[in-house]
Design a protein that fits this description.
Elements (H helix, E strand, L loop, with lengths): L6 H14 L14 H10 L3 H10 L6 H21 L19
Helix pairs in contact: 2-4, 3-4
């Protein structure tokens, strides 16, 4: 005589399988023409660190260290905005930093 599994065992098996399933959706991927990206890039210009570096740049001419600091500040502010909107940040590897040597 073969015994059928009880309803409780079947229910527990279904719940265990559902618990192992992926419960959340992946964050949306960012396309280059995304409106969120444009909004975040505009919002990055209002970041206090970016504004301070822009003001400093008005008195500095051809300073590669300043240009690199401004680029990093804009990137950080844009990425923080994208993260706040729940958008997956492009890349995943830290960008290459220039050495900053002047010849």
């Amino acid at each position: 005589m073969i015994r059928r599994p009880s309803r409780l065992v079947l229910l527990l098996a279904c719940l265990a399988a559902a618990g192992c399933a992926r419960s959340s959706r992946a964050p949306p991927k960012l396309s280059p023409d995304s409106t969120v990206l444009g909004q975040c890039q505009r919002q990055a210009e209002d970041d206090p660190e970016v504004k301070n570096l822009i003001i400093e740049g008005m008195s500095v001419t051809a300073n590669p260290q300043h240009d690199e600091a401004l680029r990093r500040a804009r990137t950080n502010a844009t990425n923080a905005c994208l993260k706040a909107h729940g958008v997956e940040i492009p890349g995943g590897v830290e960008p290459v930093r220039k050495s900053g040597y002047l010849f």
